[in-house]
Design brief:
The chain is an all-beta fold. The protein contains no helices and eight strands. The protein has a five-stranded antiparallel sheet with strand order 1-2-7-5-4, with no helix packed on it. Strands 6-3-8 form a three-stranded antiparallel sheet, with no helix packed on it.
C-alpha cells in the first residue's frame, strides 16, 4: 500500500486601520499612528511583505485625500518604530521579509507619520488605501 501527501505553502494577510489622531494644522509636532499586519503562513515559509504608494501618490509621496475639499495630506508608512525606513514595494530594499514560525500568526507593526511641516492642510476628513501584499 502506498501512502502520500503534499502540503502546499500558503499565506494570508490582514491589516488593521491606521487611524491618525485629530490634528490641528500648524499645531506642531508629528502626528503618528500604527497598524498591525497579521500574517498567517504555513510553518517555515519565506515571505516578503510589500506596500504600494496608495491611491493618491505624488511621485514617491503617499497622500491622503479629502474628496469634498479636493486637497491632499502627505504621510508616510515605516517599517520601524524610529520611523527611519519607509515601507515600499521593492523586494529586498524597502519591504519586510522573514520566515514564518511554527504555531500561530506573525504580527508586524506598520508605523505612520504626518510630519509637522506638512500640517498646513485645510480642515477636513482625509483618507487613503494602500495595498499590502505578501509574496512567498
Amino acid at each position: 500500500m502506498s501512502i502520500g501527501a503534499e502540503v502546499a505553502e500558503a499565506c494570508s494577510i490582514e491589516a488593521t486601520t491606521m487611524a491618525f489622531p485629530i490634528t490641528t494644522p500648524g499645531g506642531g509636532g508629528n502626528a503618528t499612528a500604527t497598524a498591525d499586519i497579521t500574517l498567517n503562513c504555513s510553518p517555515g515559509v519565506d515571505y516578503d511583505i510589500a506596500m504600494d504608494n496608495g491611491q493618491h501618490p505624488q511621485g514617491q509621496t503617499r497622500n491622503m485625500f479629502d474628496p469634498v475639499l479636493g486637497t491632499y495630506l502627505p504621510y508616510e508608512v515605516y517599517t520601524n518604530a524610529k520611523m527611519t525606513a519607509q515601507w515600499g514595494d521593492r523586494s529586498g530594499i524597502n519591504t519586510v521579509s522573514g520566515r514564518s514560525r511554527r504555531g500561530g500568526a506573525t504580527v508586524i507593526t506598520a508605523y505612520g507619520k504626518i510630519k509637522s511641516t506638512t500640517q498646513t492642510a485645510r480642515s477636513g476628513k482625509y483618507s487613503d488605501y494602500v495595498v499590502v501584499t505578501v509574496n512567498f
